[in-house]
Amino acid sequence: MTATDTALTGLAQGWCALSLLHGRIEGHIERALQAGHGLSVREYSLLDVLSRQHDGEGGHLQMKQVADAVVLSQSATTRLVTRLEDRGLLTRYLCPTDRRGIYTNVSEEGLRLLEQARPTNDRALREALDEAAKNPELAPLVRTVESLDSAV
């Protein structure tokens, strides 16, 4: 296989198209969330992930799991948690069964903001997908993303 192999070129083109779609969607959602709610995409994602925690077996996520879910390093996730905690949107507390563990929960204020921001996020996602579907290179990826929605 060489650098000019058509399969490799096609694979690279597919990756570029996927990266372009992701960037357009994230940028559109970022602008909408910032304008409407003062939240970044990462902040929204973190609130959303943490809001899905529950009491019971496996209900609370460790910071590594949270970092993986929001696609950030652990140190970047910790900084993000601290920022949202400073805004009163998150709280941290010691794990009741392992005093070394620290849990992070969404505060009532954070849950209210998340619920207000969710329709904005969903609307911006729909708008970004609709716009991307007009691009022949991105349209197949849009259809794939949309098919995932019906599969869930």
Quick summary of this structure?
This protein has 152 residues and is mainly alpha-helical. 67% of the residues lie in helices and 7% in strands. The chain has six helices and two strands.
Description:
- By secondary structure, the protein is mostly helical.
- It contains 6 helices and 2 strands.
- It has helices spanning 6-37, 41-51, 63-70, 74-86, 108-132, 139-151; strands at residues 90-94, 102-106.
- The chain has a two-stranded antiparallel sheet.
- Helix 2 (41-51) packs across helix 5 (108-132) and helix 3 (63-70) packs across helix 4 (74-86).
- It starts with 5 loop residues before the first helix and ends with a helix.
- The mean pLDDT is 90.
Oligomer: single chain
The proportion of residues in beta strands is: 5-15%
Which sequence of strands runs across the widest sheet? 1-2
The number of helices is 6
Radius of gyration: 19 Å
| C-alpha termini separation | 38 Å
Mean pLDDT: 90
- Model regions low in confidence, pLDDT < 50 over at least 5 residues: none
* Main β-sheet description: 2 strands, antiparallel
Alpha-beta content class: mainly alpha
Name the helicity range: 55-70%
Overall outline: globular
Total number of strands: 2
Can you give keywords for this protein?
single chain, 6 helices, two-stranded antiparallel sheet, mainly alpha, 152 residues
